[in-house]
Amino acid sequence: MAKRLTWxxxxxxxxxxxALPAAAARAQRGWHWFEPAALRxxxxxxxxRRGEFDAALEQFLSAKGLQPDAPALKNNTAAALYQLxxxxxxxxxxxxxxxxxxxxxxxxxxxxxxxIHYRLQQYPQALASYKRSLRLDPDDIQAKKNxxxxxxxxxxxxxxxxxxxxxxxQQQQVEAMMQFLDQNExxxxxxxxxxxxxxxxxxxx
Length: 205
Hints:
It is built from nine helices and no strands. Residues 1-7, 16-30 and 197-205 have low confidence and may be disordered. It has a domain at 22-153: Tetratricopeptide repeat domain (Serine Threonine Protein Phosphatase 5, Tetratricopeptide repeat). By secondary structure, it is mainly α. Helix 4 (71-83) runs antiparallel to helix 5 and helix 7 packs antiparallel against helix 8 (141-157).
């Protein structure tokens, strides 16, 4: 988005060939970088990066006319709609994408869904989407920040009449997720330390 909401970053784009695993990519005819759908998708990404979101949307929709079920195009169309503040349309578009067919890019889809839900003030849904994204990509610092931002918003708006049992269950789920993320951060720090430590050449005297 042009104006960033605290830690909330814009929706992420996908190149045509990034969104599909190899088997699915082979199954789709005409889905190569030099084919019309891929070329229009690339033009849409270029327009998006220039801030020309109407032009980007036009290119993505044109590409979708050739590859209507391609998850990458659904994701990118939703990203352009998001930038144009058409959040309900963006949600409908992205919700229709086949997440299972996106392979490693599933985390991007859930991250983008989280941003859209947040803009629609659907904070529990946003939190769930960021959680799914982090399960797939625990190293995504931005998704973690968005998760924490959304959690704070939910805690601020939590109604007093919410049943205690339901509140306790939600708190346990949040604590489990934060523990998972903290453990992953510690593992990553340990890996970085091991990489940074110079190897010692030990000699037998």
